[in-house]
Amino acid sequence: MVKQMGIIGYPLSHSISPDFQQAALDYCAIDANFHSWEIQPDDLESFFQNIRTSNFSGASVTIPHKEKCVELVDKLSPSANLVGAVNCIVKTGNKLVGHNTDGTGFIRALKAKANFNPKGKKVLLIGAGGASKAIAHALIKSEIAELTIANRTLDRGDRLARQLKLIMPNVDAIDLNRKALLKPLGNVQLIVNSTSIGMKNGPDPLASPIPEDLIPSNVLVNDIVYNPPDTPLITAARKNNACTLGGLDMLVYQGIEAFELWTNKDAPETIMYAAAEKALGI
Ligand code: ATR
To answer: 140 with 53, same domain?
Structure first.
């Protein structure tokens, strides 16, 4: 019987996961259909009843369902439990297991595509939402030396910093403004934007989260926004001669990690990249 897989989110028109996951399944000759399951929040519980009884074998989960899925699966992986969010569901026997591959995908992309090992590094993380939390935990697990979280709402940044301090003492939260950013920007080796600033059709598509003239040349700038590929932050970083990594890499690598959990096979990375780039018109 053909396996049924997919991505669960709302809205989903922007998602390119079906493109690169179906390409990977086809390449590996796995008899599966990867759907785009656009499920409204009120319908999520009944959707879960369906996947328990049907020929479902796995799914990606995206906004706004990542946190709700924590309650709806039968078991959580250690990383999903730590982050409090599920971005990947694997059906094992009759059980639905929730995983989180955002953090591991982020680190794998850094190492594979920017040749950057975060161990011992000082990091500025912009944002304090769900994506930021997964990235912060993954960076701490990779043994970074220091983490500064810059967020528009300082309270939220402080809350995340307090949680993280329980596992690593060198964590601070600051305001996302020019004056507060000056000190960390003179001190870090990695800058990560984990907000939606700069995203096409997002709240602030033309802005850079950091004033362009403040981006140092001796850092790696990683924007997790993947559409457009050249965000205002990436363009400014390039102008200032900094190294850059776009958001497509984290997106594809979290998908690669998910594919490997679903199939127990190595993911065909080149095939997945080609399909993702084609879907984005790159
Ligand atoms: P996600 O789960 O995708 O991370 P989220 O939990 O809503 O989404 O978090 C979004 C992050 O982007 C937050 O850090 C948010 O800042 P606030 O905590 O101040 O809301 C940040 N963000 C979104 N739009 C922003 C904007 N226009 N300017 C600055 N920060 C923004």
So the answer is: no
Q: What is the C-alpha separation between 80 and 195, in angstroms, rounded? A: 20
Phi, psi of 145 (to 5 degrees): -90, -35
User: Among 3, 66, 121, 133, which one carries the catalytic annotation?
Assistant: 66
Tell me the three state secondary structure of residue 238.
helix
Q: Which tens digit of pLDDT belongs to each residue from 95-133?
A: 999 999 999 999 999 999 999 999 999 999 999 999 999
Query: Which residues approach ligand 1 with their CB closer than 6 A?
Result: 63, 127-132, 151-153, 156, 176, 195-197, 203-204
Pocket of ligand 1, candidates 15, 195, 201, 226: which has the most ligand atoms within 8 Å of its Cβ, to mutate?
Answer: 195
Same domain? 185 vs 242: yes
Q: What is the pLDDT of residue 53?
A: 83
Cα–Cα distance measured from residue 193 to residue 126, given in angstroms and rounded to the nearest whole number: 5
Q: Are 21 and 140 members of one domain? A: no
pTM: 0.95
* Positions of E strands within 39-105: 56-61, 75-76, 88-92, 95-99
Of the pLDDT bands very low, low, confident and very high (cuts 50, 70, 90), residue 70 is: very high
